[in-house]
Amino acid sequence: MDRVNRILNNNTYKTNLDSLKELEKNRTFCRHGLEHLLDVARLAYIENLEKGLGIDKSIIYATALLHDLGRVLEYKENLPHDKASVLLAKKILPECGFGEDDIKLICMAIGEHKNIKELEDKGLCGLIYRADKKSRNCFCCNAIADCKWSKEKKNYTIES
Predict the structure, then answer these.
(1) How confident is the model at residue 138 (pLDDT cuts 50, 70, 90)?
(2) Is residue 136 part of a domain?
(3) pTM for this prediction
(4) Which member of 36, 75, 82, 146 has the lowest number of beta carbons within 10 Å of its beta carbon?
(5) Domain extent for 106
């Protein structure tokens, strides 16, 4: 997990995470800070273990920590956050010791995490997609009535 901890200490990562916190401080709906990113990582890793998928823990955590970082560029430059997150990941990951193959895998999952069509995808994309949705506590959200998510996407129960 050394490479994952390097992400947390990376200047580009920290700067964008701080900016994201500031940009979303008055956001009514779910925020995309470190708590969310770690929730996604943990839920994805649990599913990985439960289903015996064998995806490396550091790959799952790196993907989860970076998957929404591009929201900063979405807010500031109107760039879709999935594409913006890939751009940031391509800068951060090499600085943190990730090799070319890992970077391709992580960036592919980040780029597809909001567009995946097959919920049963057994790869990294599917893990991140499902964990991202499961991480939201819609059942106790004060903004649920105004949320743009469809009723089918909202979490009304706790799931692992």
Answers:
(1) low
(2) yes
(3) 0.89
(4) 146
(5) 2-146
